[in-house]
């Protein structure tokens, strides 16, 4: 399935470039994290293409300020770490009676110190994967109603840091490592898209996972020191951000492009269940992951697109969240 295609775009293409000529009038879109970083750019570009965009936000004040130039973007409260909040948001949305044509699960946290939610679940797994799994399950009726919907899971090259450790996903019995925890949650995003597409395509729902690139100007870097960022090769000795799209080091405008391409491009009408980066479908990586500092080769790890692992994660996610998809 991971067969690269010629989209006509490159690693340097922007979200505005990939959506040029596409009209989303009459389409309803939800973008989690749609008020900061690449989520904000995704909101802006999809809205400018004619879509009605709804932005769930944990911080309503921050969202209001960020979206002040887009007063028609609707802000609703939701906290991915709080299951009751996810359910409340979904119930309010479903009460509108709208179809949901595009769901972009873009919100996320990265490399935080060990934190647990009220259920005792590790925060990166809970926020980046479980919260979005529950949200998608609750919004399922609106996705089916669209008769042609797409769900985009914003993953990361960082999935190379770890597969999903099914025996201990919440670090109850192993030492916590913040990058392994992040990598596990990003692998989960990819596996979720794979299984969601397998289950959803009969209802016209296709799912994609994407790596946006390394975008150092976003809030995701808040838990890294300047020394760490320099070691990662994303800032120079003067502390300035390094931009090199071919090495996945991008601007926000470039970083949002693959999400937007997967959300709206007619080139993907008959496809789904794939991991994409640089505005194309990524190749499969053979062998061990290359996580060498400064190296950003394309590709998805085989463990992240393993159908058996995807099914296992689905079952685990249902058990941990209590959320099920009503087919």
Short description:
Helix content is 35%, strand content 13%. The protein has helices at 15-19, 37-48, 60-66, 83-94, 123-138, 140-145, 178-200, 226-231, 252-255, 257-264, 307-321, and strands at residues 28-32, 52-57, 74-77, 102-105, 149-154, 205-211, 274-277, 280-281, 284-285, 300-301.
Write the layout of secondary structure elements.
Blueprint: H1 15-19, E1 28-32, H2 37-48, E2 52-57, H3 60-66, E3 74-77, H4 83-94, E4 102-105, H5 123-138, H6 140-145, E5 149-154, H7 178-200, E6 205-211, H8 226-231, H9 252-255, H10 257-264, E7 274-277, E8 280-281, E9 284-285, E10 300-301, H11 307-321
Helix pairs in contact: 4-5, 5-7, 5-11, 7-11
Strand proportion, as a percent range, falls in 5-15%
Q: Report the radius of gyration as a whole number of Å.
A: 18 Å
Query: What is the CATH architecture descriptor?
Result: 3-Layer(aba) Sandwich
CATH fold-level label: Rossmann fold
Q: What's the total helix number?
A: 11
Total domain count: 1
Q: Can you tell me the residue ranges where pLDDT is under 50 for at least 5 consecutive residues?
A: none
How is this structure best described in words?
It is a single chain. This protein is α/β, with parallel strands linked by helices and 327 residues long. The chain has a single domain (15-312), classed as Rossmann fold. 35% of the residues lie in helices and 13% in strands. The protein is built from 11 helices and 10 strands. The protein has helices at 15-19, 37-48, 60-66, 83-94, 123-138, 140-145, 178-200, 226-231, 252-255, 257-264, 307-321; strands at residues 28-32, 52-57, 74-77, 102-105, 149-154, 205-211, 274-277, 280-281, 284-285, 300-301. α7 packs across α11. The mean pLDDT is 92.
């Amino acid at each position: 399935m991971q067969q690269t295609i010629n989209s006509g775009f490159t690693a340097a293409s922007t979200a505005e470039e990939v959506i040029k000529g596409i009209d989303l009038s009459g389409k309803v879109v939800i973008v989690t994290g749609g008020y900061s970083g690449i989520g904000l750019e995704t909101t802006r570009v999809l809205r400018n293409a004619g879509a009605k965009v709804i932005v769930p936000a944990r911080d309503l004040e921050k969202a209001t300020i960020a979206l002040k130039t887009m007063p028609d973007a609707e802000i609703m409260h939701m906290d991915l770490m709080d299951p009751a909040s996810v359910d409340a948001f979904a119930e309010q949305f479903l009460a509108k009676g709208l179809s949901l044509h595009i769901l972009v699960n873009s919100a996320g946290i990265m490399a935080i110190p060990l934190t647990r939610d009220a259920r005792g679940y590790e925060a990166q797994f809970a926020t980046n994967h479980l919260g979005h799994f529950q949200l998608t399950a609750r919004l399922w009726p609106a996705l089916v109603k669209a008769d042609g919907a797409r769900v985009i899971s914003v993953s990361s090259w960082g999935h190379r840091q770890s597969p999903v450790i099914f025996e201990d996903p919440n670090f109850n019995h192993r030492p916590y490592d913040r990058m392994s925890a992040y990598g596990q949650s990003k692998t989960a995003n990819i596996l979720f898209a794979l299984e969601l597409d397998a289950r959803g395509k009969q209802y016209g729902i296709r799912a994609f996972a994407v790596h946006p690139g390394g975008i150092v100007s976003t809030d995701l870097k808040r838990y890294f020191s300047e020394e760490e960022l320099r070691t990662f090769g994303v800032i120079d000795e003067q502390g300035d951000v390094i931009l090199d799209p071919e090495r996945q080091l991008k601007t926000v405008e470039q970083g949002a492009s693959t999400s937007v391409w997967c959300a709206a491009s007619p080139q993907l009408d008959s496809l789904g269940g794939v991991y994409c980066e640089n505005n194309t479908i990524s190749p499969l990586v053979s062998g061990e992951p290359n996580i060498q500092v400064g190296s950003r080769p394309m590709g998805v790890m085989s463990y992240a697109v393993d159908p058996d692992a995807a099914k296992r994660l689905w079952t685990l996610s249902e058990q941990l969240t209590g959320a099920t998809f009503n087919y």
